[in-house]
Each structure stands twice: as C-alpha cells, then as structure tokens.
Amino acid sequence: MTTALVQYTAAAVSDRGRKRPSNEDAFGYSVEHGVYVVCDGMGGAAAGEIASSLAVDEMMRLLVAEEPGAPTAEDAVKAVAAANQAIYTRSRRNPKLAGMGTTMVALIAAERQVWILNVGDSRGYRLRNGALQQMTEDHSLVEEQVRMGRMNRSEALRSPLRNVITRALGTQSQVTPDVFALEAEPGDLYLLCSDGLTREISDRLIESLLRLDLPLDELCDRLVSAANKAGGHDNITCLLVRAG
User: Fold this and answer.
1) CA distance 16 to 22
2) Does some domain include residue 2?
3) I need a surface site. Which of 33, 96, 109, 135 has the fewest CB within 10 A?
C-alpha cells in the first residue's frame, strides 16, 4: 500500500496596519524546500525591522539548500539558534539596537511530515475539515497565567500586560523554540501569522474566512482586511500553506 504524496502551495501578505508608521513584520518561504517563516520584530527606531529581517534571512539561508528537499526538525532548531545568535550579536555591537528581538513561527513540510516551531506570540494554526485549531502556544505572560489557571481568557484579553512576551529571538544569548510534530492530510490549510491578526479578530472569524473557497492570496487579503477593519493597531502578516 502506497501513501499518496502531499503537494503544497502557499501565499503570504504583510501589511503595516492602520496605526503603525512602519512594518516590523517579515516573512519568507520556499514551497520547493518546504520552509515557511513569519517573524514580528520589536525594538525602538528601526530595530524591530532589523531583528525580524535578520531572523527570516538567516533561517531561509540555512534551511533552503541548493538541492530541493525539506530540512529536518533538527535543522530547523539549529537555524533558530543561529538566527537568535545573529540578532543578539548585532544588538550587542550597536547600542542603538540594544534589546531588539523578534517573535518567530515557522513550518517545515517534508511530504506528510510537518513541524511547526515557535518563539513568542506569533501563531501557527491548522484548518482541517473546516475546524480551526491553534497548534502553537503563545510565550506571553498572560497566556502562561491562563495555562496555570491564574487568569481566564476574558481577563487575558483585557490585561494591560498582554503585550509582554516571555520568549523571543535575540534578547538572550540562547533561546529554545517549541516544536510540534504533525502529519499532514490532503486539504489541510496551515496559517502562520503575527499577533497583529490574532489581537484584532477572533479565531472564530479566522476559521470562517479560511473556509471560503478562494485562492490562497485572496484568503490572505481577506484576513488582513478583517484585521484592519477591526482597528489595525499593529502590523499584520498572514502566510497560508495548503496541503493538496
């Protein structure tokens, strides 16, 4: 008995939003190599943009080889460590960039095997059979309080500390990503996004939009438009990956 191969397609949109003067998000992907990355930078002046771009560039450089074929989860973890070191070293050398960092969510697809890695509060979701599931766990103060039962979901949404993240690339000399191993099924739709999407619109609305029978680039546009309509307080990045 043979297992049918899974073919992937992808699209992405990144938008400044309605309130921010610049876009500190960054993304990169290679369908050929099965690598998809979204980062959301933080830091004063242009530091956030530098951190997110450094992370994406470093991960794509290390994970997209000359020959087609997906890297392994171990390769991805090593690339995250290298990206972290690149940002940390750069910020230590330039006082204007001190404290810069970035969140990161990445997907590695090798046939049916999929790995999602994350650091911070950029998220990875999967839509399967019309049902949306968050596959990552936010590294944020309020989410950790929710997981420990010290705060409920509505309190977390209202908390003045909801912007505090507990793990990021580049702010410390070392960082450990969470790694989630999944098995793809034809029809699965994966969403990698920055919190500019998830802070503005609910998972229920995201689910309803992703159910629409539209090309991936149009789905990305619909998500970004909904986030902007809800306020657009932050940069918004959506990267969709469909298993066919």
Assistant:
1) 6
2) no
3) 96
pLDDT along the chain (244 residues), means of 10: 77 97 97 96 87 98 81 96 97 93 97 97 98 96 83 78 88 97 98 97 97 98 98 98 97
Give domain status of residue 210, yes or no.
yes
Residue listed under structure tokens 């509060």 = 121
Question: Could you please report the per-residue DSSP string of the chain?
Answer: -PPPPP-EEEEEEEE-TTT-SS--EEEEEETTTTEEEEEEEE-TTTHHHHHHHHHHHHHHHHHS-SS-S---HHHHHHHHHHHHHHHHHHHHH-GGGTT-EEEEEEEEEETTEEEEEEESS-EEEEEETTEEEE-S---BHHHHHHHTTSS-HHHHHH-TTTT-BS--BSSSS----EEEEEE--TT-EEEEE-HHHHTTS-HHHHHHHHTS---HHHHHHHHHHHHHHTT--S-EEEEEEEE-
Domain containing residue 28: 8-243
- The CATH number given to whatever domain includes residue 228 is 3.60.40.10
Global pTM reads 0.94
Contact 119, 167 (CB under 8 A): yes
56 domain residue, yes or no = yes
Q: How many domains does the chain have?
A: 1
Residue 154 is predicted with a pLDDT of 77
- For residue 2, what pLDDT is reported? 43
Q: Is residue 31 situated within a structural domain?
A: yes
